[in-house]
Amino acid sequence: MDFEINQLLFAFLLTLFAGLSTGIGSAIALLARRTNTRFLTLALGFSAGVMIYVSFVEIFQEARVLLIADQGEVWGNWYAVLAFFGGILLIALIDKLIPGLENPHEMRRIEDLSAEQKEKYKLKRIGILTAVAIAIHNFPEGLATFTAALDDPTLGIAIAVAIAIHNIPEGIAISAPIFYATGSRKKAFWLSFSSGLAEPIGAIIGFLILMPFMNAVLYGVLFAVTAGIMVFISLDELLPAAEEYGEHHLAIYGLIAGMAVMALSLLLVLV
User: Fold this and answer.
1) Around Cβ 29, how many Cβ atoms within 10 Å?
2) Distance of alpha carbon 243 from alpha carbon 63, whole angstroms
3) Least confident stretch, 63-67, 85-89, 135-139
4) CA dist., res. 192 & res. 45, Å (int)
5) Three-class secondary structure of residue 105 per DSSP
6) Alpha carbon distance 86, 78 (integer Å)
7) What is the C-alpha to C-alpha distance for residues 89 and 15, in angstroms, rounded to an integer?
């Protein structure tokens, strides 16, 4: 498939926005004395609602359409379903291989770090482990945003916003321990902010590797894998974190609001 420079630039900027939103979380961690749990609960629930709705209603259905058109109804559906659960398996394995203490998806409040934990977080160790963990986690997320934006800009924007919200707590989880280890807000912020670059860089590298092979089947598989990844992240990370940060009903209200906003945005495209 051939893409215009404007398409590639737009997709890249969206992915960059999603990745660098870790800086927002970093700023929250470094400027606030306590975590705004109600805001984070609603935001995480909202992000989960957007990602779940768009995954099932839009991304997975698009994958089915592409694969069925090329492979026929039976095998097209089989490939779509296998790719969907393959995406879930991929991100589950990634989460399993990264220790919880160093995993930036393991949510922690700023004020919950004990003196012993603060001592453990030495800059060199946590910096390397965090960078590796984020690079691994953000690669599929960046590629998902990038490829979706190339195929459908509106869908790309929705995914980018959802992932950006999801990346904010990561910024908190990264910058807080680094600040406690070094005493430097500047170092904590810039390391957290820069770590978000792994997402657009991963998207570009992944796209360049796959570009020679881009066709309807590969696009369909990528979309189905993306849907699986986003559903897993929502159910395994976003909703449990929302519950942990605040009230159960706030998380559900955020979830429903995210679904409603995503549904409305898709309907407005049809007008």
Assistant:
1) 27
2) 31
3) 135-139
4) 23
5) coil
6) 12
7) 23
Cα–Cα distance measured from residue 169 to residue 36, given in angstroms and rounded to the nearest whole number: 11
CA 136 → CA 125, 198, 203, distances in Å? 17, 8, 12
Distances (CA, A) of 54 to 45, 69, 148, 161, 260: 14, 21, 11, 12, 11
Question: Cα–Cα distance between 197 and 134 in angstroms, integer?
Answer: 10
Distance from C-alpha of 101 to C-alpha of 177, rounded to nearest angstrom = 11
How far is residue 149's CA from residue 159's CA, in Å, rounded to a whole number? Answer: 9
Interacting residues of 208 by C-beta distance below 8 A, sequence separation 6+: none
Distance (Å, rounded) from C-alpha 95 to C-alpha 93? 5
Distance CA 42, CA 100 (A): 24
Q: What is the DSSP string of 196-241?
A: TTHHHHHHHHHHHHHGGG-SHHHHHHHHHHHHHHHHHHIIIIIHHH
Predicted confidence band at 213 (pLDDT cuts at 50, 70, 90)? Answer: confident
The domain spans of the chain are: 5-32+40-266
Residue 228: how many other CB atoms lie within 10 Å:
27
Q: Do 28 and 168 meet the contact criterion of CB atoms below 8 Å apart? A: yes
Helix (H, G, I), strand (E, B) or coil at 165: helix
Encoded tokens for 35: 């975590």
- pLDDT one-digit tens code per residue, 144-203: 788 778 877 877 887 788 778 767 766 766 676 567 666 777 877 887 777 778 788 878
| Inter-residue contact 10 to 140 (CB < 8 Å) | no
